[in-house]
Write a structure and sequence with these properties.
4-stranded antiparallel beta sheet; 2 domains; Viral Envelope Glycoprotein, domain 2; 3-stranded antiparallel beta sheet; alpha+beta
Amino acid sequence: MVGHWEVTQILILRTLEGNLTNTKQQATGDSYVTKQSVMGIYDFNILSDHDKYDTVFTKGRFVDSVKEGRITYVLYSLSYFWVEVMYDRPTNKILEIGSFVSGKTLDRYINIPNKI
């Protein structure tokens, strides 16, 4: 049938928090794939601090926050890794930003009482 187009869109979510990584669209006979690049931890680590903050606050997904003394630690997921931003609450200033895949830093966000 001339002029009849069947369009199918498939969104594939492949990250811990559901960031879009692949989009596929098909039209009768013609198909193309558009891949959205996913930033890796090494790409993130070579960014300037300003670009790290911009990336986390625009593309990262908030996960949790923990207060310890005057410091607030905020955890974000970004692609296949985690980013932690440390704030000084009294001055409302960012002290540090760091990225990691796993380890003791992630343990801070496990809300398990010490008396278990």
